[in-house]
Design a protein that fits this description.
With 333 residues, this protein is of the alpha/beta class. Helices cover 36% and strands 18% of the residues. The chain contains 13 helices and twelve strands. The strands form three sheets. Strands 5-6-7-8-9-10-11 form a seven-stranded parallel β-sheet. A three-stranded antiparallel β-sheet has the order 1-2-3, with helices on both faces. It has a two-stranded antiparallel ribbon with strand order 4-12. Helix 2 packs across helix 13, helix 5 packs across helix 6 and helix 10 runs parallel beside helix 11.
Length: 333
């Protein structure tokens, strides 16, 4: 039985955390933290997502706080640094927040910039980290096939690990993968998994070499594990700019995967200048531990969102809850 909204919201905290640099167009991250019988959970769909999409994020939170965690195969998750579209002269500063990591994901294809700016950022990351570092780029589906192919050519000198969601549609990814077949440059699918009605379509189409999976958008660890198993492709676990509570949920997924061949995008607590716990899941020696996160009461108070934002998040949870399979109809107030 799915817990009712009143149970989910009992002891809930809405927080607003500052970021070290603008990311996804924001400088603060809001989240609703829930406390269930099996620990803390996070509900933090991005503000622009509709209720239907937010329902999957709520299912993940319910699983984390009210369900049983899967068996862990590892207790430490190697992570990458994530580099937003910052000026070149800020790259060292941002990367230093992540400590000694061997892999960097560089955000590219910002609508306000061009390919030259992407090349400059990737070049600087390669210069700073040296030839042994692994560099992947993430376009969030912003390129068409021709643009993606041009970008692949321009970025080829920097020995990329893979291209993440270079194009928006499965058909475009398949065409691009065909064009780059002889390049040995893998294509990773992110939005084609987490925002798709059929998250396996990209694998069936042969349009990707690996999947990027995120616990909250996919509705929880169990569903993400099923998707990876059915797709039959390697997986990278990533985050959605979560608090350390949400990152712990991602770490559980990464710990449960049978194979973990790639560093995971679970180091993004380094992009926050504050968190909800005294022991945040920031990278240390290129990894984060697999463990529960216990928010600190003083930090929850210090970073509490304004009352109107708490009201907004509570109402959003109730609307998302009404869309979950097996939920009771919402109360008429």
């Amino acid at each position: 039985m799915i817990p009712e909204p009143d149970e989910l919201l009992a002891g809930a905290h809405t927080v607003r955390l500052p970021l070290a640099t603008r990311f996804r167009g924001v400088t603060e991250r809001e989240a609703l933290l829930l406390h269930g019988p099996n620990g803390w959970a996070e509900f933090s769909p991005f503000l622009e997502y509709d209720d239907a999409e937010a329902a999957a994020w709520l299912a993940a939170a319910i699983e984390a706080g009210w369900g049983e965690p899967p068996a862990a195969r590892r207790d430490r998750i190697p992570v990458n640094a994530t580099l937003p579209t910052v000026p070149v002269d800020r790259i060292r500063e941002v990367l230093e927040r992540f400590g000694a990591v061997r892999t960097v994901k560089v955000k590219v294809a910002d609508a306000a910039e061009g390919l030259d700016a992407d090349v400059a950022r990737v070049r600087e990351v390669r210069r700073l980290l040296g030839p042994e570092a692994r560099i992947r780029v993430d376009a969030n589906g912003a390129w068409n096939v021709d643009q993606a192919e041009r970008a692949a050519h321009a970025l080829a000198p920097f020995d990329l690990e893979y291209l993440e969601q270079p194009c928006a549609s499965v058909g475009e990814l398949a065409e691009l993968r065909g064009r780059l077949h002889d390049w040995q440059l893998p294509i990773a699918a992110d939005e084609s998994v987490r925002k798709a009605d059929d998250p396996l379509a990209v694998a069936r189409a042969g349009a990707a070499d690996l999947l990027v999976v995120k616990v909250q958008p996919l509705g929880g660890v169990a569903r993400a594990l099923r998707i990876v198993a059915e797709a039959g492709l390697p997986a990278v676990v990533s985050s959605a700019l979560d608090t350390s509570v949400g990152l712990a949920m991602g770490a559980r997924l990464a710990a449960a995967l049978p194979e973990l061949d790639f560093d995971c995008g679970l180091g993004t607590a380094a992009l926050l200048t504050a968190d909800v716990t005294r022991e945040p899941l920031t990278p240390a020696d290129g990894a984060i531990p697999v463990r529960p996160v216990e928010p600190d009461a003083a930090l929850l108070r210090a970073h509490a969102a304004p009352p109107d934002r708490a009201t907004w998040w509570h109402a959003r949870l109730r609307r998302a809850h009404a869309l979950l399979p097996g939920s009771a109809p919402p109360r008429v107030e």
